[in-house]
UniProtKB/TrEMBL annotation:
Keyword Transport: yes
Database matches in PROSITE patterns: ABC_TRANSPORTER_2 (PS50893)
Matches recorded under PANTHER family: ABC TRANSPORTER (PTHR43335:SF3), ABC TRANSPORTER, ATP-BINDING PROTEIN (PTHR43335)
Family: Belongs to the ABC transporter superfamily.
Keywords from the UniProt entry: ATP-binding, Nucleotide-binding, Transport
Species the sequence originates in: Oceanipulchritudo coccoides
GO terms assigned for molecular function: ATP binding; ATP hydrolysis activity
Sequence ranges assigned to domain ABC transporter in this UniProt record: 5-235
Protein name: ABC transporter ATP-binding protein
């Protein structure tokens, strides 16, 4: 598979603050790549560099077969960028707003009208084509901006919080639309805080923390790798839940008691299957009556939390 985006030793400084710290990664053509991390992780700075809106301190960027420092205009022609909370022209109807941008991309006549209709269908807003943009909800406005971003059939899409303001059904529609676009060979980078939807949507992810790429790869591989470092288990007891919680606390293990499950405890511990087996053995030896003991699959939220609590790396 050919490479769509390649970053080598990308660094972005704002005075004494390093927002992106020697970031290197490659993203293949046709991927939906999720870029995640807490506020201040470097996501927006990375997107701004890729969108040709920010000159990095140093580093090499190659997109769609072109070097950013040599051919930025060639990259821009193949790029679609959707910033977070992008504005629309409130006194234009939805089709007029898209028609305006389609003309700016050089589309005309029946080709322009056809492409506007195609993008409205893709984001499932065909029934809103005659509605004034200023009357749309935040979620619908996001979908209109996405339609605008798709008009010129970009090879690379950069989407900053595209699901912001969308209800659950609209997020499903967004996932379907982006997966449809990816099947055409387009490469999509999504920066998002909505981790559960991103895990279902993305084919691979990169987790940024304080400007560094901490995890990178296939979504399922990243989650599986974390299960060796941190485990979450659900324990069901016959009785003695509070006593078990106190015993776990005495062994420096974090336990929570679900309110609607009076016999269950959720426990987080370091390590994978071996740590789980040791915990079960120790609980039995401590004379707790265990009715059930089940490992829970790690989520992106778990990965993020684990990374954010890791000690700082020395330079």
């Amino acid at each position: 598979m050919s490479i769509a985006i390649e970053l080598q030793d990308l660094r972005v400084d704002y005075g004494d603050l390093t927002a992106v710290n020697n970031l290197s990664l490659t993203i293949d053509k046709g991927e939906i790549y999720g870029l995640v991390g807490p506020n201040g992780a470097g996501k927006t700075s990375t997107l701004n560099v890729l969108a040709t809106l920010l000159v990095p301190t140093y580093g090499h960027v190659r997109m769609a077969g072109y070097d950013l420092d040599r051919d930025p205009d060639a990259i821009r022609a193949r790029l679609g960028y959707m910033p977070d909370l992008a504005p629309v022209v409130g006194n234009l109807r939805v089709w007029e707003f898209l028609d305006l941008y389609a003309a700016s991309y050089g589309l005309a006549g029946t080709e322009k009208s056809k492409r506007v209709d195609e993008c409205l269908e893709l984001v499932k807003l065909a029934d809103k084509r005659d509605v004034l943009c200023g009357t749309l909800s935040r979620g619908m406005t996001q979908r209109v901006v996405l339609a605008k971003t798709l008009l010129h059939k970009p090879e690379i899409l950069l989407l900053d919080e595209p699901a912001s303001g969308m209800d659950p059904l609209a997020r499903i529609d967004l996932k379907d639309a982006l997966q449809s676009v990816a099947t055409t060979g387009a490469t999509i980078i999504i920066s998002s805080h909505i981790l559960s939807e991103l895990a279902e949507m993305a084919t691979s992810i990169g987790i940024l923390h304080k400007g560094r790429l901490r995890e990178h790869g296939d979504v399922h591989d990243v989650l599986a790798s974390m299960e060796h470092a941190i485990s979450k288990v659900e324990i069901e007891l016959v009785d003695g839940r509070e006593a078990c919680r106190d015993w776990l606390a005495s062994h420096n293990l974090t336990a929570t008691l679900p309110e609607k499950q009076p016999h269950r405890i959720h426990v987080e511990l370091a390590g994978g299957k071996d740590a789980q087996a040791t915990l079960l053995k120790d609980l039995v030896q401590a004379n707790f009556q265990i009715h059930g003991f089940q490992a829970r699959r790690s989520s992106l939220e778990d990965v993020m939390r684990a990374i954010s609590t890791e000690p700082e790396e020395s330079e």
